[in-house]
């Protein structure tokens, strides 16, 4: 009976430790026993450990962090510079979790000509550059850097029968936001720049799906043999122009 009682207490102790997040109690602080942690090792800067004794690396953006509303989070360190620990709903259906979020979520252009998703992203990159003995990165302007257009989703070649409808899609990114045109070229050398006033061939441009991105569609209604040829998505802004082409083929078959 004594052995059974001991095993029961042992199992309960393990269960309690698991439920409480396996948080160890803090011993009296002796800073002489603290490991030497250099700021160069810590991308998000230094912070005091959970016991408030030794300096350790702070949690980076999107890493789990210590939050008073989440008991299991006590096993993590505090967030680093310019970061705040915030509770998030777990999208996988689990319990809520706490993660570090940047206090300034504005997209920024760095002195290196690159766009950073927020201030913390820029500062992390600057610190890494300093470690690698490269020029540190500063905020050039609080908005994305200007960039030449980039076709992130090029149009895809299509083959279909006459009288059917055909859709071509072209997704473009750039700052300033690019202007998109479609250029049709037939095998005989005929060329048409869309949009036009043609009711059968129409174009549509819409912002998204992400910031600084536009998506353009070209629709051909009631496909005819005269529509066969090359269709080029042309995107341009003040910094340059880029283009990608595809073909529309009319399938052989009996026409009615």
From TrEMBL:
Signal peptide: 1-21
All copies of domain Kazal-like, residue ranges: 80-147
Location of this chain's protein in the cell: Secreted
UniProt keyword annotations, A-Z: Disulfide bond, Immunoglobulin domain, Secreted, Signal
Superkingdom field: Eukaryota
GO cellular component: extracellular region
InterPro entries: Growth_fac_rcpt_cys_sf, Ig-like_dom, Ig-like_dom_sf, Ig-like_fold, Ig_I-set, Ig_sub, Ig_sub2, IGFBP-like
Domain IGFBP N-terminal per the UniProt entry, residue ranges: 22-103
A GO molecular-function annotation: insulin-like growth factor binding
An example Gene Ontology biological process: regulation of signal transduction
Limits of the Ig-like domain: 149-249
Main location class: secreted
Database matches in Pfam families: I-set (PF07679), IGFBP (PF00219), Kazal_2 (PF07648)
Gene3D superfamilies, per the entry: 3.30.60.30, 4.10.40.20, Immunoglobulins (2.60.40.10)
Name of the protein in its database record: Uncharacterized protein
Originating species: Rotaria sordida
